[in-house]
Amino acid sequence: MRMIVTLGAVMVLATLVAAPSAPAQSPLANAKKQLETTIFHSGELAQRGSAVAASKTHLQHTLNCLEGPRGQNFNAAPGYPCQGQGNGLIPDLRAAEAAGVGGAGKALRFVGAAHTLITTALQSNDVDLVQPYAIVVSNQLKQALAALP
User: Is residue 109, in this structure, part of any structural domain at all?
Assistant: First the structure.
C-alpha cells in the first residue's frame, strides 16, 4: 500500500514537472515591459552623476533592449536589463505590428528615432552632450509606450 501511494505521488510530481510552464507573453506585453525598462535606463539612470561612462552604459543598456541579443549593436559586456522580457523591443514591436496590434507601427517610429539618437550619443565622450540625448531618447520611448493600447 505504501508503495502504491509513493508511486502515485511520483506520478503526480512527474506530471507537474512535465506540465508546460506559463504561456509566453504576447509581443505587445513584452514590448510594454521593455519600454518601461528602457525609459528607466535612459530617463533616470543615464541622468545620474557627471561621469560620461555611466551615462553611456545606461544608453547601451537601452540600445541592447531595443535591438535584443541578435541586434547589430548589441553589446553584452555592459549588461542586458531586458533579458527575459522578450526578444528585443524592435523585434517584438514588429511582431505586434504584423499581428495587427494598433499603435505598434507608430510606436516603432518613436523607437526608431530613439535608436538613432542613442547611436549618435554613444559616439560622444562629453557628458553634457550624452545626458541631453538620453532625455530625448526617454521622451521618444514614452511616446512609443503611449501609442500602444
Answer: yes
- Residue in this structure with the C-alpha cell 514588429, named with its chain if needed: 94
Largest Cα–Cα separation, the chain: 76
User: How many domains does the chain divide into?
Assistant: 1
Gyration radius of the chain's alpha carbons? 20
Q: Examine residue 19 and state whether it is found in any structural domain, yes or no.
A: no
Structural domain range at position 57 = 27-147
Tell me the three cell numbers of residue 12. Answer: 503526480
Locate all alpha helices (DSSP H) within 44-126, ordered by sequence: 52-67, 89-98, 104-121
Report yes or no on 13 lying in a domain. no
Q: Is the pTM of this model over 0.85?
A: no
Residue 52, burial from CB neighbour count under 10 angstroms (0-12, 13-18, 19+): middle
102-136 b/e (C-beta count within 10 Å ≥ 16 → b): ebbebbbebbebbbebbeebbeeeebeebbebbee
10 in a structural domain: no
pLDDT for the residue 35: 98
All cell numbers assigned to 61: 543598456
Check residue 25 and give its pLDDT: 85
Looking at residue 24, its pLDDT comes to 64
pLDDT value, residue 127: 97
